[in-house]
Amino acid sequence: MYRLLIIVGNTLTVIGCMGLLLAASGLINAASFSIGISSGIRVIGSIAITGCLLSAIGYGMVDYH
After folding, report:
1. What are the pLDDT digits (tens) for 17-40?
2. Dist CA 7 CA 5 (whole Å)
3. Distance of CA 24 to CAs 29, 40, 41, 50, Å?
């Protein structure tokens, strides 16, 4: 279970960070990721943050296992 959390978390973190870099450089349109009143940058950043949290949970389970 913890390995799955680590892999998914690290993958989401990399995808989110790459998305932020691409949006900041103008290679992708961040506005296309906007949902409701949330900007596209916020949605892409949420993916990276979710990945960080999942990785932290997975690594924390390793420490207590």
Report:
1. 999 999 999 999 988 888 888 888
2. 6
3. 9, 11, 9, 20
Q: Would you state the structure tokens that stand for residue 27, as one six-digit string?
A: 């290679």
Q: Which two tokens stand for residue 40?
A: 């596209």
The two three-digit tokens of residue 26, written as one number: 């103008």
Q: Is the pTM of this model over 0.90?
A: no
Of 60, 44, 62, 51, the residue nearest 10 (C-alpha): 51
Q: Give the Cα separation of 3 and 27 in Å (integer).
A: 33
Whole-Å CA distances, 60 to 7, 9, 30, 46: 14, 13, 33, 21
Rounded to whole angstroms, how far apart are CA atoms 13 and 49? 7
